[in-house]
Amino acid sequence: MSETRTVLDARTSPTRIINIKGTNFAYREFGPSTGVPVVFLHHFTAVLDDWDPRVIDGIATERRVITFDNRGVGGSGGRTPTTVAAMADDAIAFIRALGLEQVDLMGFSLGGFVAQVIVTKEPQLVRRMVLAGTGPAGDIGKVSARLLGDFLHGILTSTDPKRYLFFTRTSNGKAAALAYLDRLTERTEGRVKKTSALGVAAQIVAIRRWAAQDPMELETIEHLVLVANGEDDRMVTTRSSFELAHRLRNASLRIYPDAGHGGVFQYHERYVPEVLAFLS
Fold it and tell me: Coil, strand or helix: which one is 73?
């Protein structure tokens, strides 16, 4: 009698722990067990439960997906780094600890900053990169009063700030925001804790340092890269995504209409097939 195999997804994949030099890193993995895995690097304040299940489950139909909380975030221990470079070092250590020789990277927002440093430090570790809602060092725009107001409004009204920060305020954008936030609640068991106030503060310092530092020599990166964003990103300016794609010698660009920072989640039905085609 054949044994039924449980198919894991964003809702059911267990949270695993790997200890790296005394620090516990929380991660999940699902999808095929063969092939080059896709390691996801998430955004400012995000934890394992903040990945849109339509995106990671969609990628997992063809590729092994690995999501993880970096140091001091969500289910992982330690203190959150205050530089993107240190975050990249932790991500490299995590990938090496899993015994992986080569990976594809999917970096969203802050995770996109981290991905750029990883491919610069360890080019042989990376096969291809997908960068979404992100930009190059020294060119990501400024944190505006409007953006801070949206973040504060979310806190004061006990609503997720991503509702205001990730999507446009058009009728389409508002509907997409509600659908996205609803999808984030689909996992009901084994969720990790939210990023602490100290962790958020450390990430803000890291982002400000990234925005202020000298540009990286992106022109030397030879990897194939897919850059994506919404046409009206209020967090990392859409112009920064154009600049990123322009400076990367082997990059292609996708811009989604009537969409903001979370455009790849709003347009997941288009984005996932485009990513899978690019990675294959």
Answer: coil
Most distant pair of Cα atoms in the chain: their distance: 64
Rounded CA separation 194/183 (Å) = 17
Annotate 260-269 with b (16+ C-beta within 10 A) or e (fewer): bbbbbbbbbe
Q: Kindly write down the DSSP assignment for every residue of 208-260, as one continuous string.
A: HHHHHSPPP-GGG--SEEEEEEETT-TTTTHHHHHHHHHHSTTEEEEEETT--
The sheet carrying 23-30 orders its strands as: 16-20, 23-30, 65-68, 38-41, 103-108, 126-132, 224-230, 251-256
State the Cα–Cα distance between residues 277 and 256, nearest whole angstrom: 17
Write out the two tokens for 92: 């490299």
Residue 277: both structure tokens together = 């085609």
pLDDT per residue over 32-74, tens digit each?
988 899 999 999 989 999 999 999 999 999 999 999 999 999 9
Radius of gyration of the chain (CA): 18
pTM beyond 0.90, yes or no = yes
Query: Tens of pLDDT along 105-160?
Result: 999 999 999 999 999 999 999 999 999 999 998 877 665 455 666 666 655 655 67
- Expressed in angstroms, the distance from the first to the final Cα of the chain is 36
Give which of 223, 207, 204, 46 is closest to 135, Cα–Cα: 207
Strand partners of residue 38: 65, 104
Looking at the domain that runs over 16-279, which CATH code has it been given? 3.40.50.1820
